[in-house]
Every structure is written in structure tokens, then in C-alpha cells.
Amino acid sequence: MASELLTSPKNPWIRKLRQLHRSKGRQEQGAFLVEGSHLIEEALRVGWPLQALCYTPEWAERHPQLLASLPKDLRRQAVSLEVMAALSTTESPEGVVAVAVSQPIPSPPLSGVRLGLVVETLQDPGNLGALIRAVAAAGADGLWLSADSVDPENPKVLRASAGQWFRCPPRVLPDLASWIQACRRHGIQVLAATLSPSATCYWDQDLTCPTLFLLGNEGSGLREATIQQANAQVRIPMAEGVDSLNVAMAGGLLLYEALRQRRSQGGTA
Predict the structure, then answer these.
(1) What would the pLDDT profile of 180-221 be if each residue is shown by its tens digit?
(2) What is the dihedral of CA 146, 104, 188, 158, to 10 degrees?
(3) Which segments of 2-154 are extended strands (E)?
(4) What is the C-alpha to C-alpha distance for residues 50 and 74, in angstroms, rounded to an integer?
């Protein structure tokens, strides 16, 4: 049975959901917003728990199968275009927003980590979403973030991940330095991506062993203390006069070079 149309953005429940636009609200409520049919389908595909779904009647007419596939106990709430505009963080909302439950993302055992990215102080949600896509596409074991990075449940991160967030949700590290040392003790090669001319060109580095790449902030790169935690430094060569590369592009290059080396030797990632 269709729910009664909710038309006021000032409705207490809607106002509470709008608090999920901010990191503080997401932390307090233990929930985050999932906007758009594709992201909701991906969440359902992996069984991510949802609390509620808000949708416009126009969206329901276009997506009857998706609406019917939702868990029976999920709250379904029809809302007006005005309410949807208040809930959405996009300028042109599709007409559907789900409320997803935040849950801990356990890391795989370090003994099973073969390839991954670790990012320090990442600030741009679009870059994080693109890194998630790169990690998922490469079949890597994970993406780890320092605690002072952008909130991984930011709606912009989920959109930029093109749905891959639910397959490869980022893990937040309370203590980056301690975790790097634990990885090294487990025989994982930790490589800091830097611009140093003395760093090894990334395609000359042996990447056939278990490897994690350290990537830094978009503007200032890795902290020197973090670089010192690594086994070695690698660089991506660039043409004269070019002094930076998008962090997501860099992550993708590093991951795929590791895959290339491993497959050329007849191994797997």
C-alpha cells in the first residue's frame, strides 16, 4: 500500500533526515543517505541494511520493479518534489533517497592483503569516490583512510564511486602509523608515492609481492613522518613543467602496474 504523500520539508522526520547531510548528523544517527536508483540497487545487491526510502510519485511510476524489490519491513515514504529537493544534495534529484545504516567495515586479515591503497588526509569527496572505483576495478583488497580524511559516508563520495562504494567501502584508520608498522611486520611492502627525484620510478619497483601504496593529500602530499614509515618511495614520471597528478589517477596507475607485473609473471593480483 502506498504511503500518504508527505509534503512539508518542516516535517520532524524530514528535518532529522536532513541532518544526515552533515558528518556530525551521520555520526549521531548512525546512518547516511543513498541518493539515486543505481546506488540503491547496488546497496540492495550486496545486502547493505536500509532504514527507509523516500521517493516521489513520479519516480515510483518509472521504477515499479525496484520499489517492489525492497525488503518488506523497510519504511517507504512518498514525498513531494519540494521535500525531495530538501532531502537531496544534488541540484537535479532523481526522485529517490534511501537511508542506510552505518556499520563497521572490518579489514581483511593482514595475512590476506595482496594489494591496496592507503590515503592520508584526503579532502575531496570526488577524489575518494574515484579512488574507490579504481580499487574495485583492479580487484584490490581495500582502501584505507587516515582519520583526518573526508567522511567516507559523505553523499558526494557515494555518488562519485558510481555504486562501487558498497563493494569496496573505505576503512578508517584510527592510528595510521601503527597500522603501517603492523603491515610491514606481516611482510607487506609499503610504498610511499612522492615527487622526490630520488624515488624509484613506479614501473621499476618490484610490485609482485604484497604491496600497499601510500598516497597523500591533494595539495601537500604525504607528511614526512608518514613517508619515513614506508619501505621505499616511488614516483610517477611526468613531463617537464608538470608538477602534480590527480590522486585518483595516481592510485589507478599504481594499482594497474602492480597487476601488470603480476600477470606478466603468470601470477594473480
Answers:
(1) 999 999 999 999 999 999 999 999 999 999 999 999 987 889
(2) -60
(3) 31-35, 50-55, 75-78, 96-101, 115-119, 142-146
(4) 7
The beta-carbon contacts of 263-266 under 8 Å, at least 24 apart in sequence, are 265/208
Residues β-bridged to residue 211: 115, 189
Q: State CA 116 to chain mean position distance.
A: 13
Q: Under a CB-based contact definition with an 8 Å cutoff, are residues 236 and 202 in contact? A: yes
Grid coordinates representing 97? 533517497
Whose CA is closest to 213, among 257, 175, 172, 153? Answer: 257
Model pTM score:
0.92
pLDDT tens string 127-139: 999 999 999 999 9
Extract the C-alpha cell encoding 192. 610511499
Q: Using the predicted structure, report yes or no on whether residue 267 has a pLDDT greater than 80.
A: no
d(CA 199, CA 72): 56
Identity of residue 34: V
- Taking the C-alpha atoms of residue 35 and residue 266, their distance in angstroms, rounded to an integer, is 41
Q: Does the pLDDT at position 266 exceed 80?
A: no
> What Å distances lie between residue 266 and 135, 205, 261, 263, CA to CA?
21, 18, 9, 5
